[in-house]
Design goal:
mainly alpha; 3-stranded mixed sheet; 5 helices; 6% strand; disordered N terminus
Length: 107
């Protein structure tokens, strides 16, 4: 962790934050801000926005998926005990993500 950055409690904590403040976001501003962020982070955010029902805001981030060459894990910190399990994990082609951890959100 870099100094000064808060911990969000993993992918589920981040998903909860996306749900709680996503309604206040602006799709155009999200797309503009996404230009300076890592493509993987943008795809993860788009997926989470989709999961919590903010489809138009997620849609603003879809163009960034085209630049991605491969699918990546939703949660990069989760490592499978058996490498072959990565192949069996569900994938979301729309975001080029491997869903290696279920997302749990309080609605």
């Amino acid at each position: 962790m870099r100094p000064g950055l808060p911990q969000v409690g993993g992918i589920n904590g981040l998903a909860q934050i996306v749900k709680d403040i996503g309604a206040q976001s602006d799709a155009r501003k999200l797309a503009k801000a996404a230009e300076v962020y890592d493509n993987a982070a943008v795809r993860r955010l788009g997926y989470l926005l989709d999961q919590v029902g903010y489809k138009p805001k997620a849609g603003a981030l879809e163009p960034f998926v085209r630049a991605a060459k491969t699918s990546i894990p939703l949660n990069p910190s989760v490592k499978p005990l058996i490498a072959s399990l990565v192949e069996e994990a569900p994938r979301v082609a729309k975001w080029k993500l491997i869903i290696n951890e279920p997302v749990e959100i309080d609605f």
